[in-house]
Write a structure and sequence with these properties.
The complex is a heterodimer.
Chain A lengths: L4 E5 L4 E6 L7 E2 L1 H15 L7 E5 L4 E3 L1 E2 L1 H8 L8 H8 L5 E5 L2 E3 L1 H7 L3 E5 L3 E3 L13 H9 L1 H10 L2 E3 H7 L5 E3 L1 H16 L3 H33 L5 H13 L1
Parallel strand pairs in A: 2-4, 3-6, 4-7, 5-8, 7-9, 8-10, 9-12
Antiparallel strand pairs in A: 1-2, 10-11
Helix pairs in contact in A: 1-3, 2-10, 3-9, 4-5, 5-6, 5-9
Chain B lengths: L2 H15 L21 H15 L14 H12 L2
Helix pairs in contact in B: 1-2, 1-3
Classes of the chains: A alpha/beta, B mainly alpha.
Chain lengths: ~250, ~80
């Protein structure tokens, strides 16, 4: 029903949530965030709760993260960071979430994957915690949740270098990402895992989710305290605006 | 440094960054796109090559380059500056 997020619940009780803003590469525009939150509300208010959710993006881009206008507004102190709502919403869902990350995931886009329970990534695509290349510190829970997904030392490397790692590279580094497969296999593999989960008793799935998500919720709360403070400082650095312009110029060329 | 040496550096970086490409098979007259590079692959190859060569070329000067050879020419300008 909403514009840039498609929702479909199939006969197995698997909710397929597709971030589908082709024009904007699933960046967090105001509309995207609103549609995403609406879709989550819609899912939670279904008469029969889904057993498991698969979060997917476009074939080429899962999500490119924050939009430039928001970042610029942050450097000018016009708004406060609010992207954390996406992370919070995902972490607090009452059913397990599989991220099927076929395409690139950058910054907040990668953070969204770290908020999921199971991650399937693509060898050909690139994944980057690119915050520092724009002069500000990582957000959306990245400082605590990325190390869960890739291990603490790989997470440090990813955050400090801000490099866009190829899936195959992460595969060699030995992360905690569940599966790194060819792009064409990402959705089938996610579907197979989802079907196996969907066969289980939904009441027990929810119980297990509740237990397993306690740690993630706590990590996200820890992140929020530190990241908010670091953002207030690092978005205020005079250099940050220029770095943001440079990075987007590179991407738009 | 010669242009050929720079091309060799770029070829190795391309091999590292793209799947199923051997440095020896790369024709510098072609574009990285011909070897299956997407836009982020190309950005990564360029930044990795610049680190390798210890140069910094402003992004604006890289925008119009059509093939690997043109990239090497641009790098050469900065390497020997």
């Amino acid at each position: 029903m909403s514009g840039v997020i498609d929702l479909k619940v199939d006969g197995d009780g698997i909710a397929w949530v597709k971030m589908n803003d082709k024009k904007n590469k699933n960046i967090f525009t105001e509309r995207f965030v609103k549609d995403f939150l609406n879709t989550m509300n819609e899912l939670e208010n279904l008469p029969e709760a889904p057993k498991v959710m698969v979060l997917q993006g476009l074939h080429d881009v899962f999500s490119a993260g924050a939009d430039k206008e928001t970042l610029i507004a942050l450097t000018e102190g016009r708004i406060v960071v609010k992207d954390l709502v996406l992370s919070e919403r995902l972490v607090n869902l009452e059913f397990p979430v599989i991220a099927a990350v076929e395409g690139h995931a950058m910054g907040g886009g990668l953070a969204m994957a770290t908020c999921c329970d199971i991650v399937v990534a693509a060898r050909e695509s690139r994944y980057g915690a690119v915050f520092m290349s724009m002069g500000f510190t990582p957000g959306m829970g990245t400082t605590t949740l990325l190390s869960e997904l890739v291990g603490p030392f790989a997470a440090s490397e990813m955050m400090y270098t801000a490099k866009r790692y190829k899936g195959s590279e992460l595969e060699r580094m030995g992360t905690n990402i569940n599966r790194i497969v060819t792009k064409m296999r990402v959705i089938p593999v996610a579907r197979d895992i989802a079907r196996q989960i969907a066969e289980k008793n939904p009441k027990s799935i929810q119980l297990l989710k509740y237990t397993l998500s306690i740690r993630k919720k706590k990590l996200l709360m820890d992140a929020r305290l530190q990241e908010d403070m670091m953002h207030r400082i690092s978005f205020g650095f005079p250099e940050t605006r220029g770095h943001i312009d440079d990075l987007y110029a590179e991407l738009e060329k | 440094m010669t242009k050929d040496e720079i091309i060799d550096v770029i070829k190795v970086v391309i091999e590292d960054n793209l799947d199923d490409v051997n440095a020896g098979d790369i024709d510098p007259r072609k574009s990285m796109k011909d070897y299956g590079a997407n836009s982020l692959d190309m950005i990564e190859v360029v930044s990795c090559s610049m680190r390798e060569l210890n140069i910094k070329v402003p992004r604006a000067e890289l925008a119009e380059l059509q093939n690997i050879e043109a990239l090497a020419d641009k790098f050469l300008e900065y390497k020997n500056a």
